[in-house]
Design brief:
It is a multi-pass membrane protein. InterPro entries: PMP-22/EMP/MP20-like (IPR050579), PMP22/EMP/MP20/Claudin (IPR004031), PMP22_EMP_MP20 (IPR004032). Keywords: Glycoprotein, Membrane, Transmembrane, Transmembrane helix. The protein has 161 residues and is an alpha+beta fold. It is built from four helices and five strands, in the order αββββααβα. It has a five-stranded antiparallel β-sheet with strand order 4-3-2-1-5. α1 packs antiparallel against α4. The chain starts with a helix and ends with a helix. 31% of the residues are buried.
């Protein structure tokens, strides 16, 4: 049981770190231009230097929503990690980690909403550049989506023995 708890704890920490990286780094979309590689994230557009991401007025609410949901997912993931540690030492034997699991599933839902909005609204926005494709931050966000779902379900069914 201790090995299972330690494994879940390690995967949860890895998920938190990957959420931080995917939200902060600016490599959600990557393309090539005459001046070299261009990467776009949630905050900046980087070519040789980085500048604030310019979006048109119809896409700005979508970008703000993606930013907000990704930040919320980090917050809920950290809260779930703290709640897991608290419940690990305060729960009686045979009790389940319901609160931790519920918070982690809220994190899962925030990641789903944020990445889905980004996929729907910003995937084809770099069409003027050569060979646009998704960057590692976008992929990390989807990996965190999977991990947070699995962790949330495991917390809900996991009993402290």
């Amino acid at each position: 049981m201790l090995v299972l708890l330690a494994g879940i704890f390690v995967v949860h920490i890895a998920t938190v770190i990957m959420l931080f990286v995917s939200t902060i780094a600016n490599v959600w979309m990557v393309a090539s231009s005459n001046l070299g590689p261009v990467s776009s994230g949630l905050w900046l557009l980087c070519n040789q230097t980085c500048e604030q991401l310019q979006v048109n007025s119809s896409d700005e609410p979508s970008l703000k929503a993606v930013q907000a949901f990704m930040i919320l997912s980090i917050i809920f993931s950290v809260i779930a990690l703290v709640m897991f540690i608290v419940q690990l030492f305060t729960l009686e034997k045979g009790k389940r980690f319901y609160i931790t699991g519920a918070i982690m599933l809220v994190c899962w839902m925030c990641i789903l909403i944020g990445v889905s909005i980004y996929t729907a609204r910003f995937t084809g926005k770099m069409a003027a550049l050569t060979r646009p494709h998704h960057g590692y931050c976008f992929i990390l966000a989807w990996i965190c989506f999977c991990f947070s779902f699995v962790i949330g379900i495991l917390y809900l069914v996991l009993r402290k023995k």
